[in-house]
Design brief:
The protein has 333 residues and is α+β, with helices and mostly antiparallel strands. It has helices spanning 35-43, 61-72, 101-110, 143-150, 183-195, 211-222, 243-250, 292-301, 308-313; strands at residues 2-7, 15-16, 20-21, 26-27, 48-53, 58-60, 81-83, 86-90, 95-99, 114-118, 124-125, 130-136, 140-142, 159-162, 169-174, 201-207, 228-232, 254-257, 269-273, 276-280.
Length: 333
C-alpha cells in the first residue's frame, strides 16, 4: 500500500486518507472512493486529496484484522466483530481474562501496522463483554506480513478466559470476645465480593483467637469439602509465628507468604492445606473499596497458583487509588 496526493478526478477506487466535511455531507477516511464521491469532491472544488492505493499484494484492513483476531483468540471467545479495520473480541462465558503478556508485547513490537490491545490481565469478565481488539492502522497490510503472523503458532491463544474452579468456600473468624466480632458485617462484604463470580461463604465458623482453637476449627471445616478457606483473625497477622499462621501449620498446612506488596492489603496471608487454598484475610477486606485482597481472591478462585514471583508482581499497581494521604511539607530547620 502506498499513500500519496492525487488529483480528485483520478481518485476512483482509491482509499480516502483523511475525513472530509462538506456543508451537507461527509466522507470518512478509509472509504473506497466511487464515481459519486468524485463528483462530490469536484462539486466542492477539491482538486487534490490524500489517498491510499491498495495493491494486489495487500489484504484489506477488515480482512487483515479478522485473520489476526481469529489467530490469537481462544475457544472461549466469540467470532470477532469487524468494523473500520478493527476486530473486537468478546468473551463467550464468565471468567477471568488471562493474557500471555510476552506474546502480546511481541506482536505489537514486531508489527507496527497492527495494534492489539486488551483489558488488564486477570480482569474478571462477564459473557458478552468486550475484552480486547485488533486494529489495522493503515487501510491495508501486505499479505506476506499477515501470513507471517498466521504461520507463527506462538501467537495463538494470547487471550484466554479461565473459568472459576472453586465451588465451596469456608470462613473462620477468630475472636476472644464474641460480642465484639462484627462477624455479620464482615461476612456480608466478603459475600458481596464472592457473588461477583457466583460464589458465597458456604460454611462459617467462629473460634477463640489462639492457634490450638484455630487448628481444631480448621480440621472441622476441612471435613466439609471446601476448596477455599478464608481466615479473618481478631488481630492482624504480624509474622509467620502469629496465631493464624501457627494454626495453619498445626493443621499440616504451608505458608507461602504473610505479606503482600499492596496498600491497602499488606497483611494478607497466602497458604494451603493439601489441596485447599488458604487466605488470611486482611482488615481492609471489611471495606468494599478495592484492595490487595480482591487481587488474590479473584485469582485464587479462578485456579491461579501463587508463588513468590507472582506475589512480588502485585507490587506494580498495588497502590490503590482509593488510598489518599496528603503530602505534608516539612519545615526547614
Amino acid at each position: 500500500m502506498k499513500f500519496k496526493i492525487v488529483l480528485s478526478k483520478n481518485a476512483k477506487n482509491c482509499i480516502l486518507g483523511h475525513n472530509l466535511k462538506f456543508n451537507n455531507s461527509f466522507l470518512r477516511k478509509g472509504k473506497v472512493l466511487h464515481e459519486d464521491d468524485i463528483e462530490l469532491l469536484l462539486k466542492n472544488k477539491i482538486k487534490k486529496i490524500y489517498v491510499a492505493v491498495k495493491s494486489e499484494d495487500d489484504y484489506s484492513e477488515d480482512y487483515s484484522a479478522e485473520l489476526i483476531a481469529k489467530h490469537i483468540s481462544s475457544i472461549n471467545l466469540y467470532k470477532p466483530q469487524i468494523t473500520n479495520g478493527r476486530a473486537d473480541l468478546y468473551t463467550k462465558k464468565n471468567g477471568m481474562l488471562k493474557i500471555n503478556k510476552e506474546k502480546l508485547l511481541k506482536i505489537n513490537f514486531l508489527f507496527p501496522e497492527i495494534a492489539v490491545c486488551s483489558l488488564r490481565n486477570f480482569t474478571i469478565v462477564k459473557k458478552g463483554q468486550l475484552l480486547g481488539n485488533v486494529k489495522i492502522l493503515p487501510y491495508a497490510v501486505n499479505k506476506k506480513k499477515i501470513k507471517k503472523i498466521l504461520i507463527n503458532s506462538s501467537f495463538k491463544n494470547i487471550f484466554q478466559i479461565i473459568e472459576r474452579n472453586i465451588t465451596r468456600v469456608g470462613i473462620i473468624f477468630t475472636s476472644n470476645d464474641n460480642n465484639n466480632i462484627k462477624k455479620e458485617k464482615i461476612l456480608k462484604v466478603i459475600d458481596q465480593r464472592l457473588q461477583g463470580f457466583d460464589l458465597k461463604a458456604n460454611i462459617v465458623e467462629v473460634c477463640k483467637h489462639n492457634h490450638k482453637a484455630l487448628s481444631e476449627s480448621i480440621q472441622n471445616i476441612l471435613k466439609k469439602k471446601i476448596q477455599l478457606l478464608l481466615i479473618y483473625g481478631e488481630s492482624s497477622i504480624s509474622d509467620f509465628n502469629d496465631v493464624v499462621p501457627r494454626g495453619i501449620k498445626k493443621s499440616n498446612g504451608k505458608i507461602l507468604s504473610t505479606i503482600l506488596p499492596t496498600d491497602p492489603g499488606n497483611l494478607l496471608l497466602i497458604g494451603n492445606i493439601k489441596n485447599t487454598n488458604v487466605i488470611g484475610v486482611p482488615g481492609c477486606a471489611k471495606s468494599l473499596k478495592r484492595n490487595g485482597f480482591d487481587d488474590v481472591l479473584e485469582r485464587v478462585c479462578h485456579g491461579e497458583k501463587f508463588n513468590k514471583l507472582k506475589i512480588a508482581e502485585l507490587a506494580e499497581g498495588g497502590l490503590y487509588k482509593n488510598l489518599i494521604r496528603k503530602f505534608k511539607r516539612i519545615k526547614s530547620l
